[in-house]
Amino acid sequence: MDEFLFKGRTLLSETDYDIIQKVLSGDKGSFAHLVDRHGEKAMTLAMRILKNKQDAEEALQDAFIRAYNALPRFEWKASFSTWFYRIVYNVCVSALERRPGEVFVSVDEESSDGEKLREVESGAPLPDAAYESAEAQKIVHEEIERLPDVYGATFALFVVQEMSYEEIVEVTGLPLGTIKARLFRARTMLKDALVRRLGEGAGVRKSKEIAA
């Protein structure tokens, strides 16, 4: 696997499809471009779930190996990124469940009115020196890290990977109602934490900025 890592930047004109066709045609070194293109966001997702750099790096290495070996069977029913992040997600969840005393629980968050849960709200960010400061940004990152695993992973897919609800369903295998519920609760927990630490106005505005 090491032969794929850090061999240069992907040409911006090349699509994932172009790169995969090169790999399948025998140019194994081109897989390094997929690693380069998707590695950073995949590492962010792995860290959100495992919260340990060494474990996340090992999981990501495993995920890339699995993706490489499975490329001949990839049918393009979804984008490569969605397909790959599902591999990362599953590898990380399996690694978490192997930890003594830890389980990545899938709580039942769909109630009879589950579909009535509001989607994550968006809103234009407002200028405010109090929450644009480096200290405020640090607080935001700290509180995102403190989100429970069951919510943090879904939140990372939505915010960091910028996936749609449908793509998150594809990655996690969870029902749409559960995804909406988890994102709503993650946003609520994050907003409450920011209000406590930044104050009412700045905390609410910062949560809207993240949603936007």
Structure description:
The protein has 212 residues and is mainly alpha-helical. It has two domains: 2-97, Rna Polymerase Sigma Factor, Chain: A, CATH 1.10.1740.10; 114-211, Winged helix-like DNA-binding domain superfamily/Winged helix DNA-binding domain (Arc Repressor Mutant, subunit A, Orthogonal Bundle), CATH 1.10.10.10. 64% of the residues lie in helices and 0% in strands. It has helices at 16-24, 31-50, 53-70, 80-97, 129-132, 134-145, 149-159, 165-172, 176-198, 200-211. Helix 4 (80-97) crosses helix 8 (165-172). It starts with 15 loop residues before the first helix and ends with a helix. Mean pLDDT is 77; it is low at 1-11 and 105-131.
Provide the domain count: 2
- The SSE order reads HHHHHHHHHH
The chain-level mean pLDDT equals: 77
Q: Could you please say which CATH topology of the largest domain applies here?
A: Arc Repressor Mutant, subunit A
Strand residues, percent: under 5%
Indicate the CATH architecture of the largest domain.
Answer: Orthogonal Bundle
Report how far the terminal alpha carbons are from each other: 37 Å
Fraction of residues in helix = 55-70%
Output the radius of gyration: 19 Å
Which residues sit in consecutive blocks of at least 5 with pLDDT less than 50? 1-11, 105-131
Largest sheet: none
- Using the coordinates above, name the CATH class of the largest domain: Mainly Alpha
Shape: elongated
Query: What is the tally of helical segments?
Result: 10
Instruction: Specify the CATH homologous superfamily of the largest domain.
Output: Winged helix-like DNA-binding domain superfamily/Winged helix DNA-binding domain
SS-based structural class? Answer: mainly alpha
